[in-house]
């Protein structure tokens, strides 16, 4: 009976050995504890090129590249398999004819019942085609990614070029008209048109800087309702005569920490989007109210008091797919050349940077409501005085751009300051050392050689009583890239208007 049982085992063992030897898709062979090839199957012969009599008795390191052998990779593989119970790897292996293939290998130790190491079983697969296919797919993805980037940049460039060409056209034609128009009314109207064009250009630049994360927010406590009312005239000019603009502002004070310039740009973006969504006319409604939110009611905002600003239209509405992509940079449903796709992205970025949120409520054919939420504050609201009178203080203006410097000189002179100027940091220091009565240093940040930040720190050390105000249109990058911090100085963002200058000068304090 025992004899018959052994015969069955022997038969099954022979069948299994024959099966292993016959496999052609896998190299299956055994190694001695030292790594000498002991057995060899048809699969190993097929894609490694060795006949059994050529390879049995040789060390398996012959399958490794010279570089791998020099690094001791074969011995390391045996050691890891012995100590860990298995070794798996992918890498280049070498055929008999010297060609290489990409292999997936598994190395298992063989032990007897007592745990003694008898050798190793090694299974190797040639996965060169799979690797090549994966690399080709990755290259195709990279090409697609680059193509999408170029398309996005192309849309951005086209939109910006279109918008700026229109703005420059207004300014250049306006200058020509100012030179020849004798009528004061025409000249005044032309100046108003040029001012609106300049404001739109400044807004576009701020959008770009916000998108590039180069425009820091200058947050202060403001009554949002008051800001909207003061900005109403600009909003109404953005809405054509065939549409109506309605404001519904809660009469109570609505204080929040916001950047006024960025908020006005965001609000104008939303009103323009609402206008464009109603080609046949309709109503644009702007609401502002204090609300109490529950946790998670809007995005991931915590529970608390917020100021909600809503811009509603009665236009075409958005599909669910459009809503999902609406705040993506460069995404726009407008025709080529009609927009950059940065508008709603800038609005969303402002809400996020202000620790607030944005919510879109829209249905196709039923209009759209864009809701902005800003955390409410209980601090007193900053209010500008009705008029500003400055003593005849002496101010030193520093800028390496002659046109910018000339304009600044005109503004400060208009405000009653005694103005001195310099084209760079060293010249500014020389002027300061000659004039002991200078009260204010107003300097550009980005200048060749000595930056405005470096100049400000030297002035703070040598002339601690002088007020220092820094101006830049590229604040974050310039200030972070400098050797010194600008945290202790007042900042004003370019382009600044006379009202911005008045406010900053009124708030600037000596160091």
Quick summary:
This protein is an alpha/beta fold and 511 residues long. It has 17 helices and 16 strands.
Question: What do these coordinates show?
Answer:
- Helix 6 (128-180) packs antiparallel against helix 7 (184-211), helix 10 (260-276) packs antiparallel against helix 12 (343-353) and helix 14 packs parallel to helix 15.
- 45% of the residues lie in helices and 23% in strands.
- It folds into 4 domains: 2-126, Beta-Lactamase (2-Layer Sandwich); 144-211; 220-375, Heat Shock Protein 90 (2-Layer Sandwich), CATH 3.30.565.10; 394-507, Response regulator (Rossmann fold, 3-Layer(aba) Sandwich).
- A hairpin with a 3-residue loop joins strand 10 and strand 11.
- It is α/β, with parallel strands linked by helices.
- The longest helix has 53 residues, at 128-180.
- It has a 5-stranded mixed β-sheet.
List keywords for this structure.
Beta-Lactamase, 17 helices, five-stranded mixed sheet, five-stranded parallel sheet, Heat Shock Protein 90, 45% helix
């Amino acid at each position: 009976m025992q004899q018959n049982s052994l015969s069955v085992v022997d038969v099954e063992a022979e069948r299994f050995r024959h099966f292993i030897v016959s496999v052609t898709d896998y190299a299956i062979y055994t190694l001695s504890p030292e790594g000498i090839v002991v057995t060899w199957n048809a699969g190993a012969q097929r894609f490694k090129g060795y006949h059994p009599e050529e390879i049995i008795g040789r060390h398996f390191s012959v399958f490794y590249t010279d570089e791998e052998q020099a690094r001791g990779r074969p011995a390391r593989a045996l050691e890891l398999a012995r100590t860990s119970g298995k070794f798996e790897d992918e890498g280049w292996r070498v055929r008999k004819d010297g060609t290489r293939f990409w292999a997936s290998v598994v190395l298992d130790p063989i032990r007897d019942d007592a745990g003694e190491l008898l050798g190793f079983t090694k299974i190797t697969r040639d996965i060169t085609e799979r690797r090549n296919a994966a690399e080709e797919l990755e290259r195709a993805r990279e090409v697609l990614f680059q193509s999408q980037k170029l398309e996005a940049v192309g849309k951005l460039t086209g939109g910006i070029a279109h918008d700026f060409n229109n703005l420059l056209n207004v300014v250049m034609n306006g200058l020509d008209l100012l030179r020849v128009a004798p009528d004061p009314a025409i000249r005044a109207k032309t100046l108003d048109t040029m001012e609106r064009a300049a404001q739109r250009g400044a807004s576009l630049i701020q959008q770009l800087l916000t998108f590039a994360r180069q425009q820091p927010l200058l947050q202060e406590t403001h009554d949002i309702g008051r800001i909207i009312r003061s900005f109403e005239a600009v909003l109404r000019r953005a809405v054509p005569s065939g549409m109506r603009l309605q404001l519904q502002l809660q009469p109570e004070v609505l204080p929040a920490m916001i950047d006024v310039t960025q908020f006005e740009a965001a609000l104008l973006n939303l009103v323009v989007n609402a206008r464009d969504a109603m080609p046949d006319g309709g109503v644009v409604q702007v609401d502002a109210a204090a609300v109490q939110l529950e946790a998670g009611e809007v995005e991931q905002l915590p529970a608390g008091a917020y100021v909600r600003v809503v811009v509603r239209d009665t236009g075409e509405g958005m599909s669910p797919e459009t809503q999902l992509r609406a705040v993506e940079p460069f995404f726009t449903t407008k025709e080529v050349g009609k927009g950059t796709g940065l508008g709603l992205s800038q609005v969303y970025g402002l809400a996020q940077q202000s620790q607030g949120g944005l919510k879109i409520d829209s249905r196709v054919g039923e209009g759209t409501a864009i809701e902005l939420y800003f955390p409410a504050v209980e601090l007193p609201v900053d209010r500008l005085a009705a008029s500003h009178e400055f003593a005849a203080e002496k101010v030193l203006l520093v800028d390496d751009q002659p046109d910018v410097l000339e304009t600044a000189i005109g503004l400060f002179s208009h405000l009653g300051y005694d103005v001195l100027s310099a084209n760079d940091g060293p010249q500014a220091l020389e002027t300061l050392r000659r004039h002991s009565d200078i009260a204010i240093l107003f300097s550009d940040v980005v200048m060749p050689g000595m930056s405005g930040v470096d100049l400000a720190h030297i002035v703070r050390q040598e002339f601690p009583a002088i007020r220092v105000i820094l101006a830049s249109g590229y604040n974050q990058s310039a200030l972070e890239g400098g050797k010194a911090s600008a945290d202790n100085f007042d900042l004003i963002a370019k382009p600044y208007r006379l009202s911005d200058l008045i406010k900053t000068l009124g708030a600037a304090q000596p160091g």
